[in-house]
Write a structure and sequence with these properties.
72% of the residues lie in helices and 0% in strands. The chain contains three helices and no strands. It is elongated, with a radius of gyration of 14 Å. The N and C termini lie far apart (46 Å).
Length: 68
């Protein structure tokens, strides 16, 4: 289970739905005492990077739509 959790954390979310599932799965306490490589800080950093990337993608999509 630890390897799966590490893989989930390292895989970027492709949508808000992906991010939601990632957060639910990796939220502290969800993994029955399993410790992930890099710890809690790395997990929250992964969430942060996903949110920033998804927000930037959303802004660029809206700009493209407005230009059409």
């Amino acid at each position: 289970m630890k390897r799966l959790a590490d893989a989930v954390r390292n895989e970027p979310a492709q949508s808000l739905a992906d991010l939601r599932h990632k957060v639910i799965y990796l939220w502290p306490g969800s993994l029955s005492g399993q410790r992930l490589k890099g710890g809690l800080a790395a997990t929250f950093q992964s969430f942060r990077e996903d949110v920033l990337r998804l927000a930037a993608d959303d802004r660029s999509e809206k700009a493209d739509e407005a230009a059409q």
